[in-house]
Amino acid sequence: MKIALCCINSKYVHSSLAPWYLAAAMEGIETCEVSVVEGTINQSVEEISQKILHNSLEVAAFCCYIWNIGMVRQVIRRLKAQRPGLTVVLGGPEVTFRPAEILSQWPEVSYVLCGEGEESFPALMRALAEKRTPAGIPGLAARDEHGAVSLMPAQPLRAAPPDPYSQAYMERLKGRIAYLETSRGCPFSCSFCLSGVKEKVRFFEMERAKENLVRLANSGAKTIKFIDRTFNCHPDRAYELLSFILDQRGQTFPEDVCFHFEVGADLFQPRFLALLATAPPGLIQIEAGLQSFCETTLEAVDRKTDLTVLTENLRQCIRPHNVHVHIDLIAGLPYEDYKTFAASFNSAFALRPHMLQMGFLKLLYGSKLRRQAETRADFGYQFSELAPYEVQQTRWLSPDDLAKLHEVEDALERMYNSGRFLRTLDYLLQATGWSPFALFEAFGRYAAAQGTAGVSLDLYTEWIWYFFAGQEGVQAERLRDCLVIDRLSCDNTGRIPPLLRREDKRLKHAKAKARQKRPGQGKLGVALLYQPFRIAVFDYTKRDAMTGRYAVEVFCDKEIEKMGRYA
Fold first, then answer.
1. pTM of this prediction?
2. How remote is the C-alpha of 157 from its chain's centroid?
3. How many CB atoms are located within 10 Å of the residue 293 CB?
């Protein structure tokens, strides 16, 4: 029996482990021939369908998530139209918590597997290959002869899952993000999340984790992302793994690989922070889900966080400038209105993480918060019926509030998270006296009115100039200088937008002086600054491992300054 394990990823660089776990679990079943088929949501339904349908395929199994469930529905309709006898099996978090609904409303689907599939999927495939009616399989939802849906309760795995890192998986990794799971489950039960809904965290054997880490780091992937829900929930284990990475870098795997962890920032112990501070720049990325600084909100979503400890720990992570720190906030949580979210935003921004991600609450099937949204009128939740089920209104946030927050998010992404306007932002915050939220709010509204879809970087730069140059406290030429430094620090072409250019004969003398001071140093960029007059030299052979920005030196030269602009 030929089986296709299908996963439609959100981007090509992602490489979901789920189908590879199931493929590993199927090894040794001689009656089944398994292949893994990957696609992305950016491909057409026809392209993905044709990729899946090969030879005499009998079973197509799909891993279902909020980012691909809509595409999965379209693909299986196409598959069944082309091959009516095909058996379709669905699994994953998007179907685990509503199997009866799926089987009642999606006639193309034969079976839904709930929970972990490494034991139940092989059991189902054996039954189908042997022409038996599947029965007694934990987590299996199916229709009986009368069309009624029956469900066997899911059970946790009795042993650690099989190793998913086959040669076939490794061969597909080059240039993509590789995922490493060293534990499964979560010790916490945040009401908006699914990770802690079922069993608590289970840790895999340490030697297996280290062995797979080295294998993945040698696969050609440049980023190894730990998918453990809270990497440091076991302090000793986290310390041992970080120590191993630092010890083995440049020994058993290349130096240009980086590792990404999701962490509980309030759980860090002093010795872990001390070890983290010794990491070479660019080796480690951490992602900390703050979600909110409003204590009432955190309590409402069952999130136990010591905000004082969390804040100080994040400062210690960010201060040495060697670890990329990513902080998450969620808009739309209970008891957080526009004003209190702005306060959370300002508190998070004050930490100056390398990335501050503004997410919008998704009311996931199976989450406690979705059940509350459906049953508690006092929460006032309205949300999209289609994935990803994003909140559209709450008792505390109106649709207009959420629209404005989306504008803030867009400005935040383009001005801060992109890393392209960091010096400009520093100047504007100082010159205007605005809070970070107020700045992104005001400019986000202006940019939205212009229409940000498809806007070029040059045009966006011009918008920043036009909007802020006339604001009280802002010196237009100082703003221009900051924009010039930002653009040339991020682009090694040495080119700046026409709006920022100045006709000045002194530039050629500045270029000659820069080259004279740095003979044989490689490609340089040179610009003149005017408030006050200075020369900026950009070294395109030196790049900051944390920000990706090129090195810049700014200095005065009275001799060149006195030459005259048009001389």
1. 0.95
2. 28
3. 21
